[in-house]
Backbone:
């Protein structure tokens, strides 16, 4: 019988994608992991690899079509005689499985990088899906020489162990926080007042709109404004611009902003967190993966630089340039665009004196940066010209109070005004 291939779970709570290109034709014979389709999610354009080798019998989708996880994309012709794969591989299957392995494109790439054969990995995700953790565990077991461990099974006739209680059901856990949703009223007929034109929203713009509306509806935003005197920092950047270019790096203000924010987050962990409203708990993250908002022709995309606090400014500048280029070229992968803990949006190149950005949910804070300008300020009783950088820290008022935001912003300002502290790791 024919073998259907559905849109797999792409991780990060993604439930749909738009078909950008179909990379195969009906009747074509493809190999397992060969590029099958190119799709766009709210995070990136990614290639969906073929889960099996075989002949493409029917293509069920077309470019610009939006499909949801679980919808059939391609049907493969009946396999040649041989062992058939189970409809849903179980988490306990540790011997080499046959047929397609359910795994996201990012997990398949990780497996290739670690040299792990997905067919020999026990999937512990929903429906037997192989996760990144399964791949890493398999690689670690292979390195240690230990055999893959089967999930413990209860003896015959014994009751299965009870599932762990949900976070809100644990003893001493707080009650879930209430959430409010609003339904917009119907729009008037604008045509009655004059000619109009309707333009369909792109898939990415629609997702951005949904995410922004979600954040604005769920999160009580509050914004703290501040300014940093970056006269010395600007002089440092200008002084080291050419030496950095000789090392293949373009030194920018944004790389210093990233470093300053990561160091300040260590001292103010409330702003490097997420709120679990159902459990009534705050999740404090002990890693610093910072997103940087980048405007593209397709819309605003927020790629993520990982472990920012551990890297010197020159390395951050190098990584940021490469990451921004991948985003603008539409070549950023899902791993480039997820896992962020705090976001910076720098509109300085476009001008403006300030902005109030919307939090990138489920993060709890975002730093807005406007255009630096020379201003007359008082220093030691004298009026002097200084380069002042406007900053706006928007944060979730459920998580932090105004005083917390003021202290965190002051920490960022202090680091920007003493750039030598940011260069200690160079």
Residues:
């Amino acid at each position: 019988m024919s073998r259907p291939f559905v849109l797999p779970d792409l991780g990060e709570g993604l439930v749909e994608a738009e078909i950008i290109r179909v990379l195969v034709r009906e009747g074509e014979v493809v190999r397992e992991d060969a590029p099958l389709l190119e799709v766009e999610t709210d995070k990136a354009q990614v290639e969906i690899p073929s889960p099996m080798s075989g002949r493409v019998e029917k293509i069920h989708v077309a470019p610009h079509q939006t499909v949801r996880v679980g919808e059939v994309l391609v049907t493969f012709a009946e396999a040649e005689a041989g062992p058939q794969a189970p409809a849903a591989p179980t988490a306990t299957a540790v011997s080499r499985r046959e047929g397609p392995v359910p795994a996201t494109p990012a997990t398949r790439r990780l497996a290739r990088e670690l040299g792990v054969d997905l067919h020999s990995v026990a999937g512990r995700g929903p429906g037997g899906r192989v996760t990144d953790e399964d791949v890493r565990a398999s690689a670690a077991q292979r390195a240690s020489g230990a055999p893959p461990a089967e999930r413990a099974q209860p003896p015959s006739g014994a009751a299965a162990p009870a599932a762990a209680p949900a976070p809100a059901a644990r003893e001493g856990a707080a009650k879930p926080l209430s959430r409010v949703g609003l339904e917009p009223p119907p729009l008037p007929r604008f045509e009655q007042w004059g000619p109009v034109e309707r333009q369909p929203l792109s898939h990415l713009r629609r997702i951005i709109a949904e995410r922004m509306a979600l954040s604005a509806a769920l999160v009580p935003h509050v914004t703290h404004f501040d300014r940093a005197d970056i006269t010395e920092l600007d002089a440092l950047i200008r002084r080291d611009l050419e030496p950095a270019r000789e090392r293949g790096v373009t030194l920018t203000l944004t790389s210093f902003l990233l470093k300053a924010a990561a160091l300040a987050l260590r001292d103010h962990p409330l702003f490097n967190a997420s709120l679990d409203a159902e459990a009534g708990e705050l999740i404090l993250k002990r890693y610093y993966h910072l997103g940087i908002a980048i405007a593209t022709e397709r819309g605003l995309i927020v790629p993520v630089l990982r472990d920012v606090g551990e890297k010197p400014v020159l390395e951050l500048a190098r990584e940021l340039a490469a990451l921004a280029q991948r985003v603008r070229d539409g070549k950023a992968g899902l791993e480039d665009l997820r896992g962020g803990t705090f976001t910076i949006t720098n509109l300085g190149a476009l001008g403006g004196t300030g902005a109030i950005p919307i939090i990138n949910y489920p993060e709890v804070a975002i730093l807005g940066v406007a255009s630096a300008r020379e201003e007359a300020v008082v220093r030691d009783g004298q009026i002097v010209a200084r380069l002042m950088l406007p900053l706006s820290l928007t944060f979730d008022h459920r998580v932090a109070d105004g005083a917390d935001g003021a202290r965190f912003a002051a920490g960022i300002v202090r680091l920007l005004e003493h750039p030598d502290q940011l260069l200690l790791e160079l």
Q: What stands out?
A: The CA atoms of residues 336 and 395 lie 24 Å apart. The radius of gyration is 25 Å. The first helix runs from residue 105 to 114. Helices lie at 105-114, 132-144, 203-218, 231-246, 253-267, 313-328, 402-417.
